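Sequence only, no structure available. Ideas?
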Amino acid sequence: MEKYSIHLTTCQALFSIEVVCVERFGEKVRTLRHRQGMTLKELAEAVGVASFSYLSDIEHGKKTPHPTLIIKIANVFGVTADQLMRDEIELD
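Reply:
I predicted one. Tokens follow.
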């Protein structure tokens, strides 16, 4: 995991920004959904999303989910948001 430090002169503060790669997020959601025998429509209902096509776009990497949706999806499947978001962490 790489960490970058950026010095912001206007704020006179030093922040450490962690770079997280989420290329496998959609793949992980699809895997978990299939393991549960859940359809996209069922997942959409469980997380309160009106359109299951939006979840399909997320699974195929076409859309990026809002952080609150990431947490809802993690809760539905009983995993952590880190497990979903961090490519280097495998699902159990």
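The CA atoms of residues 32 and 60 lie 14 Å apart.
Hope that gets you unstuck.
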